[in-house]
Amino acid sequence: MKSHNAIRALVEGAIFVALAEILGYIKIWHMPEGGSVSLMMLPLVVYALRWGLGRGLLAGLVLGILDFMLGGGIAIGWQSILGDYVVALTALGLAGVGHKKGMGGVIVGSVVGCLGRFISLWATGALLWGEYMYDIYGLPMTNEWVYSFLYNLPALVSGVLTVIICVVLYNIRPLRKYILGGDIQG
Fold it and tell me: Residue 46, exposed/middle/buried by CB under 10 A (0-12, 13-18, 19+)?
């Protein structure tokens, strides 16, 4: 039974990573040099809530590498590849802290995972991309932390959407059972 669950987790992880990558191409809103509002985070957060922290972090790591390679990643060096893709998307796996903890776990886990991604993007933006600042949303930019926060707001909006959808999914009985680690049937 244990190897059956390991195989199931691996297969579901591959499917959820692929689904996340596909959803990343469907952008609700897009920034000029990258960054967008999408539902890319949703499959990874659900996966981490279902399978836990370790598997969630591993799936996020795979998505981070895959997204940089397939998603037309913009980078100024290995540091931005790590911060904007690998670390940021691995952080989504932090949603696994809510594994099997009911509605509170779904809320806390999804918030922690989405905030983890945002913080990585925000820090990378301020530390690495700050020298490329330009006026954003019609506001003159002089502080790289403010610039990065404003530039990465779409990731925060995506995170809020992800948390809301996770709560809605949890309130659908068969999906609640699935997220808590049971099968979808019945």
Answer: buried
